[in-house]
């Protein structure tokens, strides 16, 4: 079987610069690219050459849907080396953790980013 890794997750966001700053401040994700996607929207890739978040500027308003009972996207996760350090960063950013779990194979926390995308951080 060929080697595989998840390259990117694409999120449409209401404020591109706010989202870049949020993930940069939380996880130290560098900007790989920022520029026009088409005639209406800007985008950015933040992360590294192996995996990144692709952020697209929304052109209309709306809310992120959350429904764990129906097919669809629920959340995405990052592995972190020090969950306590990242938790302090969340506190500094004013983000409320809505779920905390400590079970094999690791400790994890869940929260919502500024647009309402659910994010999991796990320390193994």
CATH superfamily of the largest domain: 2,3-Dihydroxybiphenyl 1,2-Dioxygenase, domain 1
Shape: globular
Low-confidence stretches: none
Nearest-angstrom radius of gyration? Answer: 15 Å
Mean pLDDT: 94
Individual helix count: 2
Biggest pleated sheet: 4 strands, mixed
How would you characterize the overall build of this protein?
The protein has about 120 residues and is an alpha/beta fold. The chain has two helices and eight strands, in the order βαββββαβββ. The chain is globular and about 45 Å long. It has helices at about 15-25, 85-95, and strands at about 10-15, 30-35, 40-45, 50-55, 75-80, 95-105, 105-110, 120-124. The chain is about 20% helix and about 40% strand. The chain has a four-stranded mixed β-sheet, covered by helices on one side. A four-stranded mixed β-sheet has the order 5-8-7-6, covered by helices on one side.
What is the gist of this entry?
By secondary structure, this protein is of the alpha/beta class. It has helices at 16-27, 83-93, and strands spanning 8-13, 31-36, 42-47, 52-57, 75-79, 97-103, 106-112, 118-123.
SSE arrangement:
Layout: E1 8-13, H1 16-27, E2 31-36, E3 42-47, E4 52-57, E5 75-79, H2 83-93, E6 97-103, E7 106-112, E8 118-123
Parallel strand pairs: 1-4, 5-8
Antiparallel strand pairs: 2-3, 3-4, 6-7, 7-8
Highlighted features:
4-stranded mixed β-sheet, alpha/beta, 2,3-Dihydroxybiphenyl 1,2-Dioxygenase, domain 1, single chain, 2 domains, about 120 residues
């Amino acid at each position: 079987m060929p080697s595989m890794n998840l390259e990117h997750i694409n999120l449409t966001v209401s404020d591109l610069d706010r989202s870049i700053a949020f993930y940069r401040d939380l996880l130290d994700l560098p900007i790989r690219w920022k520029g026009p996607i088409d005639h209406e929207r800007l985008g950015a890739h933040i992360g590294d050459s192996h995996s990144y978040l692709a952020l697209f500027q929304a052109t209309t308003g709306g809310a992120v849907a959350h429904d764990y009972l129906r097919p669809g996207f629920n959340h995405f996760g990052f592995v972190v080396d020090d969950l306590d350090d990242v938790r302090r960063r969340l506190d500094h950013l004013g983000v409320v953790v809505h779920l905390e779990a400590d079970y094999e194979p690791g400790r994890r926390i869940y929260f919502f980013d500024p647009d309402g995308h659910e994010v999991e951080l796990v320390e193994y």
